[in-house]
Specification:
By secondary structure, the chain is mainly alpha-helical. The protein has a single domain, classed as Lysozyme, CATH 1.10.530. The chain is built from eight helices and no strands. α4 crosses α7. The longest helix is centred in the N-terminal third of the chain and has 16 residues. The radius of gyration is 16 Å and the shape is globular. The termini are far apart.
Amino acid sequence: MNTIFRKSVLGVAGLAFTGGVFAGPIAAHAAEPVHANPAVVQADKPDSGKLIPHGVQGAQSRIGLNDEQTGNVKAIIAATKKAGMPERAAVVSIATSLQESKLENLGHLGDANDHDSLGLFQQRPSSGWGSPEQITDPEYSTTAFLKGLKQVDGWQDMPLTKAAQTVQVSAYPDAYAQWEQQAADLVAQHWNS
């Protein structure tokens, strides 16, 4: 494999792994907390029609989760409930985090870092998402993501990858779709736990 081609492939693979959040939050004031009425906890598992209203788009990926990753799933769900948003918002958030960080709260990755992207959603301090300390706090980063999602007109009625891409502005806009089934399964499993 020639050196230029190899470096190009490795560069693209690195961007695909780290996500590619090039823009900041849609909200001008992402640091402000989301104020909403507390969500009502349901006794039954969420309806799969609410979790994947459009069906999954394309081939699906799945990874095994360790305790830290499962804790981050629970933190995303808790922040979604606190924001008063529905289960579908948690599915979009978890699928986004699966793509951006594999649900790992990533700090600075040195040369492998995509600009100054950090945390579960690979948000960038330089783009207005918050300070490095805030962005690496799962509740804060989820709340910032959800605040951006709320500003996407009709997010509830669009495919997951379009909703996620509108907030994240990734170099790989279709990559979020591959995580929809696992995200929905995680929400169904943990929404009431």
